[in-house]
Automatic annotation (TrEMBL):
Primary location class: cytoplasm
Keywords carried by this UniProt record: Aminopeptidase, Cytoplasm, Hydrolase, Metal-binding, Protease
Compositional bias of kind Basic and acidic residues: 31-45
Protein name: Methionine aminopeptidase 2
SUPFAM superfamilies: Creatinase/aminopeptidase, Winged helix' DNA-binding domain
Organism: Canna indica (Indian-shot)
Parts of the chain that traverse the membrane: none
Catalysed reaction equations from the record: Release of N-terminal amino acids, preferentially methionine, from peptides and arylamides
């Protein structure tokens, strides 16, 4: 009995050893699979699901969805957060360099100052018919407002850098290049409307430096800075005066207030002579003391404001700045440049000094030309300026050389009109302010009004 029990014990022990080996192999096999799984995770950056047996397909599919679910949800949230994040509106640089239409991507440009008409025209404000007329003109209004916004931003920068000692030609070229950039100059569709006038002291208007001019801005100078912008031929004509010496403050104030009075008095069916009378009354209420001598401020009687048409800076109607002018009335839809000139001199200007401003006559027909050089120059003028004013610096910029004889030939033939500087008596001082207004069907819009004046 004892011998048989030992055999049984040995047999059981042998079976136990076999079981241990199988268990060890099973454990090793499991560890190997886990190691492979962790390697896949490291390699791909995400967990991979081992292939399941055919019978367990539904479970494997459910596991796969559970793993992919959070990733898909995160992607959706990311997309939503991107959609919610709005682009910040562009801010103009200093100095200005971003084109105006990029600052207003919706294509809606700032409206000018709105003034109501006087009592007999107040009904226009609520007239549905007049409002509809304005809706039809909205693209045109938007074009001229774009030109006005360029004018405001350019003059704001120029006013910030003006100082005695500046070369006048550098000042003009800085201003003009900025206009070209902000308005996105494009042939005759958008650009500069006329040369930059920077007339000094007794020179009232139409002076800009020709190439090579060495004139420098001085502390005691009174400078009229008159420049224009246009979009699709819709012109903004606007000017202001700069004086560093405070003794000229009252002279500047006289023309500023006179211009504001002219703007206020203007309106549909208003007679031009009435606007002139109101301007003169305000202008000549001012006195100015210069170097110890008191001067009665005078309106320059042979300078005027004017109506403006497409590609036509002077469209036919003149707005006087003294009493006794025309009885002609202002009309609905018209643009006017209301400008006034205050003088310590005679209050009367004449042509003098070297000419820089020129403009092709608006109504000129075909006139035969003999000189081939004149024909070539006229082609350049037609292509780049048409009936907008230009100056000799603009021809230089286009690469034209030795053109003075050809230009004189065009002037003699009546195709181009020269506009020499307009001067009061030497030693006097003239100041100017100017705004462009639009007589809309429902109200008056001061297109060029800004925070500065």
């Amino acid at each position: 009995m004892a011998g048989s029990n030992n055999e049984v014990v040995q047999e059981i022990a042998s079976e136990m050893k076999k079981l241990d080996v199988a268990d060890v192999e099973a454990i090793q096999d499991t560890a190997s699979k886990e190691s492979k799984y962790s390697k896949d995770l490291d390699k791909n950056g995400k967990a991979t699901v081992p292939e399941a047996p055919v019978n367990d397909g539904e479970e494997a599919q459910a596991d796969g969805q559970a793993l992919d679910g959070p990733a898909e949800s995160a992607k959706k949230k990311k997309k939503k957060s991107k959609a919610k994040k709005k682009k910040e509106p562009l801010q103009q640089t200093d100095p200005p360099s971003i084109p105006i239409d990029e600052l207003f991507p919706l294509g809606e440009f700032p409206e000018g100052e709105i003034q109501q008409y006087k009592d007999d025209n107040l009904w226009r404000t609520t007239s549905e018919e007049k409002r509809e007329l304005e809706r039809l003109e909205k693209p045109m209004y938007n074009a001229v407002r774009r030109a006005a916004e360029v004018h405001r931003q350019v003059r704001k920068y120029i006013r910030s850098i003006l100082k005695p000692g500046m070369l006048m030609v550098d000042l003009c070229e800085t201003l003009e290049n900025m206009v070209r950039q902000l308005i996105k100059e494009n042939g005759l569709q958008a650009g500069i409307a006329f040369p930059t006038g920077c007339s000094l002291n007794w020179v009232a208007a139409h002076w800009t430096p020709n190439s090579g001019d060495k004139t420098v801005l001085q502390y005691d100078d009174v400078m009229k800075l008159d420049f224009g912008t246009h979009v699709d031929g819709h012109i903004v004509d606007c000017a202001f005066t700069v004086a560093f010496n405070p003794m000229f403050n009252q002279l500047l104030e006289a023309s500023r207030e006179a211009t504001n009075t002219g703007v206020k008095e203007s309106g549909i069916d208003v007679r031009l002579c009435d606007v002139g009378a109101a301007i003169q009354e305000v202008m000549e209420s001012y006195e100015v003391e210069i170097n110890g001598k008191v001067f009665q401020v005078k309106s320059v009687r042979n300078l005027n404001g004017h109506s403006i048409g497409p590609y036509q800076i002077h469209a036919g109607k003149s707005v006087p700045i003294v009493k006794g002018g025309e009885q002609t009335k202002m009309e609905e839809g018209e643009f006017f440049a209301i400008e006034t000139f205050a003088s310590t001199g005679k209050g009367y200007v004449r042509e003098d000094l070297e000419c820089s401003h020129y403009m092709k006559n608006f109504d000129v027909g075909h006139i035969p030309l003999r000189l081939p050089r004149a024909k070539q120059l006229l082609a350049t003028i037609n292509k780049n300026f048409s009936t907008l004013a230009f100056c000799r610096r603009y021809l230089d910029r286009l690469g034209e050389t030795k053109y003075l004889m050809a230009l004189k030939n065009l002037c003699d033939a009546g195709i181009v009109q020269p506009y020499p500087p307009l001067c009061d008596v030497k030693g006097s001082y003239v100041s100017q302010f100017e705004h462009t207004i639009l007589l809309r069907p429902t109200c008056k819009e001061v297109i060029s009004r800004g925070d500065d004046y």
